[in-house]
Structures are given as C-alpha cells and as structure tokens.
C-alpha cells in the first residue's frame, strides 16, 4: 500500500543520525563515472537507488529504466533498494546511496537543517494526496472533518494542513479527534478506529474502487496552490552533483526514458512492475498504473520538470505555520539541469 509518508518524524530521526556522525561520507569519484569522448560510458558504474517505501506505481519508471536496459545503456548498474534504517534522505545526503525517492516536504525541512539534499525531478507533476473517508461518513468538504476521528502518524504538518483547509470553511480543527495509527492498514482502521485518513489516491483510492468500497476524496491541492507541491521527487546530494555531474545526467536520461515508457504504455509498464515485484497485487498494479500514467507529466513541458514558485510557495506556507525554523533558498533545493 502507498501510505502517506510519516515524513516529519522519520526525517528528524534521520537528520539526527546524519548530524551526529552518519557523516558526509560521499563515495569517492572514480573513472567508472567518466564518459568517453563519444558520450558512451567507459565502463559500468554501480549506483544505489533507495526507495521511500515499498515498491508501488510511483516507482514504475525506475523499474522500467532498470529492466528495459535504459540504465545499462548509460553505463549504470542500478540497484533498487528499500529504505535504510536511517531513512532515505539521510542515506542519500551521506553518500550511502547515490539517488533516492523523497518528497518536497522532507527536502524542504532537510534544507533548513543544512542537509545537502537536492531534488532532481518531480515524479508526479501535481499532488495526488488528500483526506479520504468511506462514503457512509458523508464527508464532502473539509468542514465535515468536525466531529470525526482522523487516523494519522502524529506529525504537526497533518493538523496544520487540516486547519488551513478547515479555516477556509469556518470550521474548527480542534473538533477533530486525532488518533495516531502509525502503519495501520487504512481499510481495517476505517472499519474499526477512525473515519478518515490521508492517502495517495493512486494506490489506496484505487484499491478502494477494486474492493467496492467507494471513498469521498478531498484533495489538499484543491484548497491551496501552496499545497500542490511535488510528492514524490527524486533526490541526490550536492556532493554527487559537484563531483560526478555526468553520472547524474546519465541516471536522469535513463530514468526519464523509464517514466516515458510508463506514460506511453501503462499496461506493459504495469506488467513489468508486477514481474519485478511479484508480491504486489497484479490487478491493483494495473488499475493504479492506468490511473497514474497520465499524471506523471500532466501539464508540464516534460516529465520531471519543477517550478521555483512551487518550491517557494510550499516553503513559505510551512514557515508561516511555524513548521520550519527558518526560510530556505528555494532555488537551491531543486534543479532541472539534469533533465534530458
């Protein structure tokens, strides 16, 4: 299941590990990442790509790039791995993984802690997350959160987002009962403990459709442009960009091809992901892929494109609500320079 990331708690733990001695241990640059004059790789470079969560259709383009040989064509031997105990962001910042899957929320917080993460592509162009409830709870707008039980992971951002939405409708967030569910299954929780939760529609929403358990979905982006942030994103470290820019370019050329494949051929891409990760429900993967494929690029000029106003808008929103200790330089948090 794609679960909305418990990004704040996990990132704070990761940052503590990073600043306490995980260290900025960037792998030494070697001639493995050098390119021949013709632009073809001199030899294979081993690259670690760390996911944010268990594999799902947010990641299809990455598996496509690996299994269709796009990374190999660029001279990259890419290993796709699950998140480490220290968290993906900290591992990437410390050079223990060259690339990772993260979120604009967590990159923004990391930048305030001087953790040198940089977003190099938006996986999905618009925010597909929101608050979801079974239709029998009759929750059509944010005002309907009043008097209901919300199941989350105990992050300050949850209440801040909820409050900003409810304020627009004259509703009171203090009338929402907050329940910390951790990693509990959404479908079990709404039958037993809660009325609504924060989900990504592309997975949990599609699963609800397949189960015949329809949802009311209230997308956060519909309430504020600032909440239409990039989630997820691909990240790397400032050190890797400085030391091995050609490796980053090669990775992004192949990755962009992988996501283009997922955009153009959702059924084949779904089959590829199911083969790579056989424990996933094949029916869910296919339905999710069909829903998500048009949303990777959406209205952007190219897949992965990021806008400064999106980064600044969300950082300002977080700062105004005291979710950040200081402002960030938004144009340092992301780059489009490595997109083909």
Automatic annotation (TrEMBL):
Gene3D superfamilies per UniProt: Periplasmic binding protein-like II (3.40.190.10)
Residue ranges constituting the SsuA/THI5-like domain according to the UniProt record: 56-269
Keyword Ubl conjugation in annotation: no
Pfam families from the UniProt entry: NMT1
InterPro entries cross-referenced by the UniProt entry: NMT1/THI5 (IPR027939), SsuA/THI5 (IPR015168)
Classification via PANTHER family: 4-AMINO-5-HYDROXYMETHYL-2-METHYLPYRIMIDINE PHOSPHATE SYNTHASE THI11-RELATED, THIAMINE BIOSYNTHESIS PROTEIN HI_0357-RELATED
Gene Ontology biological-process annotations: thiamine biosynthetic process
Signal peptide segment: 1-23
Protein name in UniProt: NMT1/THI5 like domain protein
Domain of life according to the entry: Bacteria
Alphabetized SUPFAM superfamilies for the sequence: Periplasmic binding protein-like II (SSF53850)
Keywords: Signal
